[in-house]
Design goal:
With 179 residues, the protein is of the alpha+beta class. It is 56% helix and 13% strand. A two-stranded antiparallel ribbon has the order 1-2.
Length: 179
């Protein structure tokens, strides 16, 4: 006699995920027109303007400026390298590296460091106007990095890769078993 709680039929669902990438280096400026590309450009511009503003101060040789200078330069070079990696599809060639996580961690740390260095510059706004300009661009860079971190977090939650396509194919198989 058959158990009334035991089904006489079962459904098996198989999900196949394919990552579609082109593994050669090529120039493609389409990334510059995406939201992430515009954020990278904004980050580079804000960081560079913050660095230039603090460098033109008459007190630019003070040790307090080293925080602003160091954080700005490291942020500039990291953002520039990542922009070049995306434009030339280096990120797509090495898709096994967790680029989104690396960028998210960087983009979470940098607003914290910028708030600290901008606060350091804020203490000297009365000495020279360039500190106020540096503070303004430092806070703008902080918000650009923070918003980019939020976008990277959402992309990680959706299971996306940094560059390329993920194609998901579902195949449903139904088999009937008589017990």
């Amino acid at each position: 006699m058959a158990d009334p709680g035991f089904p006489s039929q079962h459904t098996t669902t198989t999900t196949v995920t394919n990552t579609e990438i082109i593994s050669n280096l090529r120039y493609d400026n389409a990334y510059l027109y995406t939201l992430e590309g515009k954020l990278k450009i904004a980050q580079i511009v804000f960081v560079l303007l913050s660095l230039i503003a603090v460098s033109f101060s008459t007190y630019s040789m003070w040790y307090q400026n080293s925080a602003v200078t160091s954080i700005s330069m490291f942020g500039f070079w990291f953002s520039l390298f990542m922009l070049v990696f995306y434009i030339f599809h280096v990120v797509e060639c090495f898709y096994k590296i967790p680029w989104l996580k690396i960028e998210m961690i960087f983009n979470v740390c940098w607003p914290i460091l910028y708030i600290l260095s901008a606060s350091s510059a804020a203490a000297y706004t009365g000495l020279h106007f360039s500190y106020m300009i540096s503070l303004l661009f430092g806070f703008a860079a902080m918000f650009a990095y923070g918003y980019d971190a939020l976008l990277k977090y959402q992309a990680i939650q959706r299971g996306e890769i940094a560059q390329g396509n993920i194609a998901v194919h579902k195949q449903t198989t139904t088999s009937t078993a008589s017990y």
